[in-house]
């Protein structure tokens, strides 16, 4: 079968050290978002991501920008390194000519990628995740979950702010979706991140009209209590997250 007519294949393996995404088939306008979201989702679940594009064919060289797009979507959180693997020298040259290597390293083998990227990794994040049914009674145990994890990691000073952010994000999910409450909390060098996944692709946004209401809306509270916050699209929905720095502690 000609590669330009091959179906897209996406194989993802998550391991403690890295996520590996092996892509095959065609990268074009019809598969762009599927590929981007698969890479982004892998970045949420592992300390680094290797994307093997050896079997991926891009009829238009500009389509390779999907990987810089994925990188920018995770630059604020979780900000894990993403590297490309391609056994074909000619394709690696195409990636360089199209500016991809300015944002993501490209390697000839997965072994070389793991070795080089692991040597540049910072301290691993502490991570915890749990899921609750979509009911208001879940808010209290979610707050307990966040507090317990932060105390376990000797970060109890972040708990009051993190609990407020978690409460607001969970209530936003309850108000706008019927999704289960998929909550994660992470700790980096000097930050704590609270993130909630839901099944709606609609982005959580602060609208201009909200500024005229006087009282703070839910997302304005998140904006006020975090260093940065945002949405990350994933297959089947999105993750809304907030990064809390020492300056945000209550």
From TrEMBL:
CDD domains: HATPase_RsbW-like (cd16936). Residues 8-120 form the STAS domain. It comes from the Bacteria. PROSITE patterns: STAS. PANTHER family: ANTI-SIGMA-F FACTOR RSBW, ANTI-SIGMA-F FACTOR RSBW-RELATED. This is Sulfate transporter. It comes from Mycobacterium yunnanensis.
